[in-house]
Design goal:
Length: 223
């Protein structure tokens, strides 16, 4: 026998549905347009008013956290699986390609991987865990002798920054272009690459690179 729902139950159900519709719309628009997708367009796509959107997500950072936390958890899980690969170079190359492909299929994630969202500490904690996993993957590859000894985690950030720009400029006309770029980049990261470590420029200072990511976040409204 069905039980009648009271007004409070109906309100909670409507609120939950609105929240999910907002997240769904944000995920779609972020994926197509990047992290600077306008909030009013997200509200329109979700078929809610701006006030309803802000009631559930009072800031851009809160909405980004709701949309991307699961994806960053996938990145962390993928890094954990890569550490079980008996071939350190294969694990390294496959994980780099995995990250690049995520960028190619989701413009919002392409931005997020190179942007520090200072207003969403939960996302930054997940990002730190993801970077920690990658650092271990790269460490195995370096120790094995396959990855050049001068590679640093900051080099991954540079690579993802470059790939994000490439994806942004070629997504419509040449959507597969990122694959060639990553192949060429990985060839250059092998120990047997033509450029010796002593001939390369040093990686950027970690603090300077982090500041660039913070600046990008502030520019997009995620400070």
């Amino acid at each position: 026998m069905a039980t009648a729902r009271g007004p409070g139950t109906q309100l909670r159900a409507d609120a939950a549905r609105n929240r999910q519709e907002i997240i769904k719309a944000a995920r779609e628009l972020y994926g197509r347009r990047g992290l600077d997708a306008p909030l009013d367009e997200i509200a329109r796509l979700a078929r809610v008013g701006n006030a309803t959107l802000y009631r559930h997500f009072p800031s851009r950072c809160a909405l980004a956290a709701a949309v991307f936390a699961d994806t960053l958890c996938r990145v962390i899980e993928a890094a954990s699986l890569a550490l079980n690969d008996p071939d350190p170079w294969h694990a390294f190359a496959a994980h780099v390609r995995f990250l690049a492909q995520l960028q190619a299929t989701d413009r919002g994630l392409a931005d997020l991987l190179i942007t520090e969202v200072t207003g969403a500490p939960e996302l930054e904690q997940l990002r730190s865990r993801a970077l920690e996993g990658f650092t271990r993957i790269a460490g195995r590859a370096r120790t094995s002798g396959a990855l050049r000894a001068d590679f640093t985690p900051e080099d991954l950030v540079l690579l993802l920054m470059a790939n994000a720009g490439l994806v942004d400029r070629t997504a419509d006309a040449a959507p597969e272009a990122w694959q060639r770029f990553i192949d060429l980049a990985l060839d250059g990261l092998r120990t047997l690459a033509g450029t010796t470590p002593t001939a390369t420029r040093p990686p950027p200072d970690r603090g300077a690179l982090r500041q660039a990511m913070i600046n990008r976040g502030h520019f997009l409204g995620y400070g």
